[in-house]
Design brief:
Distance between the termini: 44 Å
Protein name: Peptidyl-prolyl cis-trans isomerase
Structural class: alpha+beta
Order of helices and strands: HHHHEEEEHEHEE
Number of strands: 7
Catalytic activity: [protein]-peptidylproline (omega=180) = [protein]-peptidylproline (omega=0)
CATH class of the largest domain: Alpha Beta
Organism: Marinobacter panjinensis
Number of domains: 2
EC number: 5.2.1.8
CATH topology of the largest domain: Chitinase A, domain 3
GO molecular function: peptidyl-prolyl cis-trans isomerase activity
Length: 236
């Protein structure tokens, strides 16, 4: 989205640049520095426009560049206000399209997560809480269980239901410490079901994770799977 808006801004600025030129030959010379720079700038801009504005209308775009470069206000076909209105309308159109795609993906992820959790609940050793959180104790510890206001030191690996790892303290080689009131609800609840020294898998529905907003690594309404080791409660 940001790249597209930048490209739009560049297009608007070009229209505002201040000489009508004859139609360019099919293969103009590339001998002088000015000729090479001019071609190079056009090539780079064309690549960006191709990536960021796939619906760009080339005839209108080139005419806008030509009129802007010529600097003749009488030949320009749009006022600055009309250009701004068009840019804002296009931005709103893009946002609407992006929102529709996000909603579609969120629904798809929610349905996939619900199907996964329904099947997972039937496996031996998997428990389901009233909130919908599922957990599976892999190794039982012999320590105490943390409270909602405690801090914990853990090692973990986070996966999507596809098996893709999106985060792992094990891969980084260093456990993390945080307060149970500082994390997603699925972690807050799940860690309180574990004894110090235990290892478990937490199967967290989207509503107890990042919900329809997701985050940078996690899509909207993703169900998450965490393999967690509770190393220590309230470490020094």
């Amino acid at each position: 989205m940001n790249k597209t808006l930048i490209a739009l801004a560049v297009a608007g600025a070009l229209v505002g640049c201040s000489s009508q030129q004859d139609a360019a030959p099919e293969n103009p010379a590339l001998e002088s520095t000015d000729e090479k720079v001019s071609y190079g700038m056009g090539l780079v801009m064309g690549e960006r426009m191709g990536n960021d504005l796939p619906d760009l209308k080339m005839d209108q775009f080139l005419q806008g560049i030509q009129h802007g470069h010529d600097g003749d206000e009488e030949q320009t076909r749009m006022s600055r206000e009309e250009i701004q209105e068009a840019l804002m309308a296009y931005q709103a159109q893009l946002q609407e399209q992006e929102s529709a795609k996000t909603e579609e993906l969120a629904q798809k992820n929610r349905e996939a997560g619900e199907e996964f959790l329904a099947e997972n609940a039937e496996r031996d050793g998997v428990e389901t809480t009233d909130s919908g959180l599922q957990y599976e104790i892999l190794e039982e510890g012999n320590g105490e269980k943390p409270g909602a206001d405690d801090r914990v030191k853990v090692h973990y690996t986070g996966e999507l239901i596809s098996g893709e790892v999106f985060d792992s303290s094990r891969e980084r080689g260093e456990p993390v410490t945080f307060g149970l009131n500082q994390v997603i609800p699925g972690w807050t609840e799940g860690l309180q079901l574990m004894s110090e020294g235990s290892r478990a898998k937490l199967y967290i529905p989207a509503d107890l994770a990042y919900g329809p907003g997701g985050n940078q690594r996690i899509g909207p309404n993703e169900t998450l799977v965490f393999d967690v080791e509770l190393l220590e409660i309230n470490p020094e």
